[in-house]
Design brief:
0% strand
Length: 79
């Protein structure tokens, strides 16, 4: 689905390598992504991986976007 070019761009912007991304993807596949507690854990994990703090307001916005199925389909273009 995503090639090495995608992972290289993500790593360049976030300092998160392909193995970490793949591990997170596996966790996401095995989780209920409509569960608020799970989403908060995932956001915290990503925040820790990238070293970027996510405000409570932004966390709430991300969760609402996911729960309401408003995530863009072309997420690879975000990087």
């Amino acid at each position: 689905m995503f090639g090495d070019n995608f992972f290289n761009r993500v790593q360049k912007k976030t300092n998160v390598d392909k193995d970490t991304i793949m591990s997170l993807a596996k966790k996401l596949q095995e989780s209920d992504m409509k569960d608020e507690k799970t989403l908060r854990e995932v956001i915290k994990d990503i925040s820790n991986m990238t070293g970027k703090e996510v405000s409570k307001e932004k966390e709430d916005k991300i969760i609402n976007t996911i729960i309401k199925d408003q995530v863009p389909k072309n997420i690879d273009k975000m990087f």
